[in-house]
Amino acid sequence: MSGYAATGTLVRLALRRDRILVPVWVLALVALAGGSASSTIALYPDPAKAVEAARAAALSPAIVGMYGPIADPNNPDSIGALKTLVLGGIFLAVMACILVRRHTRSEEEAGLTELVGAGVVGRRAPLTAAVLVASVTVVVTSLLAGLSMAGAGLGLTGSLAFAAAWAGIGLAFVGVTAAAAQLTETARGCTGFAIGTLGVTYLVRAVGDTSAELGWLTWVSPIGWAEKVEVYGANRFIVALLPAVFTIALIGLAFALLERRDLGAGLVPTRPGAAVGTPSLRSPFALAWRLQRGLLIGWLVGFAIFGLVLGGIAGNVTSFVDSPQVADMLTRLGGSAGSLGDVFLSTELRFMAIGAAAYGISAALRLKSEETDLHTEQVLATSVSRRALLVGHAVIALGGSALLLLVVGAGLALGGASQFNGLRKALGHLLPAALAPIPAVWVCVGLALVVYGALPKVVVVAWALLAAFLVVGELGPLFGFPRGLVDLSPFSHGTVVPGGSVPGAPLVALALVAAALVLAAGVTFRRRDLVSS
Amino acid sequence: MSAAIEIRDLHKSFGSSVALDGLDLEVGTGEVHGFLGPNGAGKSTTLRILLGLLRADSGSVILLGGNPWTDVESLHRRLAYVPGDVTLWPTLSGGEVIDLLGRLRGGLNATKRTALVERFGLDPTKKGRTYSKGNRQKVALVAALSSDVDLLVLDEPTSGLDPLMEAIFREEIQAVRAEGRTVLLSSHILSEVEALCDRLSIIRAGRNVETGTLADLRHLTRTGIDAVLADPPVLQEISAFPGVTAARLEGDRLTCSVETTHLGDLLARLGPHGIRSLTSQPPSLEELFMDQYRRGSALTDQAAEARA
Ligand SMILES: Nc1ncnc2c1ncn2[C@@H]1O[C@H](COP(=O)(O)OP(=O)(O)OP(=O)(O)O)[C@@H](O)[C@H]1O
Ligand SMILES: [Mg+2]
């Protein structure tokens, strides 16, 4: 076998570059798994009560749709993994995606692969190194997570099955990203492809899990495979072979694609563009829009599909009898009381709000990559002011994230129209709940802009804050975080359940905070040096 | 001749590393001013401060009569910039970039644009990443040259250009000069500087080493001497002559190098020893610059002495 020369060196290089990112991420995931397990045990000191809750949850399509089915309701341990298997698995998949992309397409785009490739480095070495680093990280994380759950007091076999299921999700997305990195020319495109696949994977299994006729859909989703391992139930380790085979096939595909393409190129050659700029391409906003429109359209399509599918599932959910145990469990695990369908929808809307904030942050931080790519230098050397530059991207980040929530609200209403006696009523019921998180999302965007304006070298802080808000909101009640801490998250304020009333004051307050943050971003950005790396 | 750029005692540090350490620079209106110095001397940093991209720590900077940090919008209508590292947006074609940058500056001269695209042989339909290095550079050059601005700030504008394009670039800059516009040209290509620049400034480690015309600079450097003498003095005596270095005596043949200001003095001192033959070699441009780059501050001191 040739083409692998210097793989070891590249692995060491990757480990060195990741020496902070990987340990932090691994620790966070392990803490998430172990922490959820021990908190759940603390919540249900009486195993009989836990079994009761698990039985109720297993019967509730709302829970199943959100977090996946419960393998064995008679095993109290199964509740300990309910929230982490799918949700944590998604975090793990995102980590896998970022790790693979960082060492493949990002490096290639930056011209570093060319620099490295001119040395005695095999053609296949960079991809091999990236896949190795990411796979080992995924497997180690999963094992540690499983052990931490066993350590928290859950059954050992089930915990190991959990590790296998998690590793399956993570590895599958090592494979997906490895292939995506060959298809697309840009790191941004690679992320879009991989994360889009992750979204589809989540949805497909949600439909499969909650529908009698479409149950087979779960079997075509890597997240579904993790569910089919039936952790703390049948513990079918053999199912974990499915993602392993899937991953190997995708990595094989990635190598085959690698052989067929040029360095730096994707599979589709770049088409020529216009010889002159269209008359509208004449302002900083027009430029920002030109750079960002593709990404926004992708997100809008994704959110529309999510809305439609989840709306459809919500239709199934409400047809089930509301059970007090489930309502009780949802409240304990973190969520709001209400009719089951509404609880389901408001939980999903919480996730969608986090998603919209993630879009908003990435759109705002486009400013940062424009700056490090030295494009900002050229724009600011013209008579464009720093404020105009910032505003151009900020408008897209703020407007785009709000538009996403509007689209998801409309999608939910359209998908679930039947149960609300028509679209108009459905919109009236759901839109306020869908739109209420907009000010909180804007606070996140504002934070990203301020970090960019004041401390451009550590824009990653904006992402860390979003992750913290997600953990606080989703797991705060479970972990028993103090109220003061939970209140630090903008998503803890002004929430509206479907059909509920809209609290004006907190929403206005959040909007004012967001406005202040955007202003602060403008002031700090105007005072600092441009950074070139 | 009023100054287009006036920099006095400019300081700029990045954390603990000092990039500019008391830099002075004066560029007269209508002149093509060369800006030279070894790698890391602080040229790009100076240009970025002039463009308001970096903020000076201290010192005064006057650009086209305004303050480059606060008067960004009005000043930038009157100047165009070619950055040291040209990176183009991957999704925009070269033509779109040229039009965009021109419009953001407040308009571009469509006739010039067409002519320049033609002259540089640029394909404006290619997308950013698919240009070769030289062609990327051409996009930035066309974008800057096709607007009728008062001042061009060029940071190594010809890096990557082939000799044919380099020649076209020189003609374009001559045309800019003929129109009475000002150019600040940072460059490592000495023949380019020699061909284009009215005056030049050499900086090193963030300070001025020298400013003047090329003729002034030549005057400050050393001349190689190769002489045969009828009655050579002892070597120590020659080495002690003012401005003489690297003196060697082989029999009756003397080779040494002398500061050009002391050339006449040396000849006068050698006269009594009977000069049988003499060749003097003025320094080449390369030697001149290498000398300046290497010796830096020492030479400034000598120059100050010589002027005094
Ligand atoms: N953003 C920055 N952060 C830290 N140091 C910097 C930064 N920008 C420049 N420097 C340092 O300032 C000094 C001057 O750099 P500058 O780019 O101005 O040099 P230059 O004269 O343009 O060199 P070259 O001929 O290589 O282009 C260098 O030592 C460089 O390392
Ligand atoms: Mg430079």
Can you summarize the main beta sheet of chain B? 6 strands, mixed
- Large-scale geometry of chain B: elongated
Total number of helices of chain B: 12
Q: How many domains is the backbone of chain A divided into?
A: 2
Tell me the name of the CATH homologous superfamily of the largest domain in chain B.
P-loop containing nucleotide triphosphate hydrolases
Estimated helix fraction of chain B: 25-40%
The biggest beta sheet of chain A reads: none
Give the tally of β-strands of chain A.
0
Give the topology string of chain B: H per helix, E per strand: EEEHEHEHHHEHEHEEHEHEEHEHH
The average pLDDT score of chain B comes to 88
What structural class should be given to the helix and strand makeup of chain B? alpha/beta
Query: How many H/I helices of chain A?
Result: 24
- Taking the alpha carbons of the first and last residues of chain A, their distance comes to 38 Å
Low-confidence stretches of chain B: 296-308
Number of strands of chain B: 13
What report would you give on this structure?
- The complex is a heterodimer of chains A (533) and B (308).
- With 533 residues, chain A is mostly helical.
- The two termini of chain A are 38 Å apart.
- The mean pLDDT of chain A is 88.
- Chain A has two domains: 1-270, no CATH class; 280-533, no CATH class.
- The radius of gyration of chain A is 23 Å and the shape is globular.
- Chain A has helices spanning 7-17, 21-43, 47-59, 61-67, 77-80, 82-103, 105-109, 112-117, 125-151, 156-183, 187-210, 222-228, 241-260, 284-318, 324-334, 340-364, 366-372, 375-380, 386-415, 423-435, 438-454, 460-479, 483-486, 504-527.
- In chain A, helix 2 (21-43) packs antiparallel against helix 6 (82-103) and helix 4 (61-67) runs antiparallel to helix 11.
- Helix content of chain A is 73%, strand content 0%.
- With 308 residues, chain B is of the alpha/beta class.
- Chain B has a six-stranded mixed β-sheet with strand order 5-6-7-3-8-9, sandwiched between helices.
- The radius of gyration of chain B is 23 Å and the shape is elongated.
- Chain B contains twelve helices and 13 strands.
- Adenosine-5'-triphosphate (ATP) is lined by residues 14, 17, 19, 37, 39-45, 84 of chain B.
